Amino acid sequence: MIFYGLCDLPWWGFITVLFVLTHITVMGVTIYLHRCQAHRALNLHPAISHFFRFWLWLTTGMVTKEWVAVHRKHHAYCETPDDPHSPQILGLPMLMWRGTELYRKEAANAETVARFCQGTPNDRMESFYRHYSRSGIILMLIIDLLLFGVPGIAMWALQMAWIPFFAAGLVNGVGHYWGYRNFECEDQARNISPWGIFAGGEELHNNHHTYPTSAKLSLKWWEFDLGWCYIRLFEMLGLAQVKRIPPEPHSDTNKSVVDMETLKAIFINRYQLMARYSKDVLLPVYQQEKEKFKGQVLKRVKALLVREPSLLDPQAKLSLQQLLTESKTVQVVYQFKMRLQALWHQTTGKENDLLEALQKWCVEAEATGIAALKEFVIYLKSISLKTA
Prior knowledge:
The protein is mainly α. It has helices spanning 11-38, 46-59, 64-76, 87-90, 92-107, 110-116, 124-131, 133-148, 151-171, 205-210, 226-236, 260-268, 270-289, 301-306, 314-324, 328-343, 351-367, 371-382; strands at residues 42-44, 195-196, 224-225, 240-242, 250-251, 383-384. The protein has a two-stranded antiparallel sheet. A two-stranded parallel sheet has the order 2-3. Helix 17 (351-367) packs antiparallel against helix 18.
């Protein structure tokens, strides 16, 4: 029947085909545009890269250098007035419903593209895609009409809406507004869901902002990154080469001194170590002391203790100071957290000076007599650079 085009499918057939088509688009964005081009976390075989470029031209009209430039600027100015798409600055509704407009506005900024597009394709095909960006979308509409007839119009509309909703709205919007945090990185990025399926792993946004140059976005054993599954498959087929994944702390039980290896290892694994400090020191001490915290602020205590200090607003900082005065022990472990965290911000310090500061931190932490803090020092001393 002409009404159904060349492919007369049952209703579930149209849904299945739509899912497959949009799934390829999602993989093109997360694997090619995001992980490969924007962050250089992996290399892709030219055949895979060219396929994704062509497919994204058909289904989104996006140009590699423009998408990469906008995304890199987002990381460079995350959650500041210069961030192209921050829900903290512009509000979540703006990102959810007008995120595509924000992207197009920044992509049209020649200064942004020139500054942040380094390393992206600059060949004839890229020039063609850029000058005829809307032609791909129109061609996709024609293909959908020929194959699926009138239902193809709805399929095309959903294809066009898929990335704006999941990328511009869900990841860029909700991903900086709601969810859980494995790590206290210096922005509000959150993991929307531990199962990265519909957005190909981009749901693990806190993980990504903590380790932006990692090809793998899942970090906990219970997290799932579908994009990483495809990358591993491509790698096994010789079509991809992974360059970076998140570091993993390595503990050597025979090591019990703080040396230069310890210093280098904790710098590499600082986010995991601070997460462990919160889990093994701050929160257990808080549980022991929580009867000293009074009033309605009790529910906020844990969040204030764990949160990255730079993300606290003035009222939250004031509340935190008031809370710390109610328990000397919690105050001590919090101060040690701040001192340890300050080490990796001393970018101009000499290695020997940093090592001396770390050794002093360990000695003074043990001298407090706080059991959780002493146990953490033992673990810190055991940290070493992982060997092959």
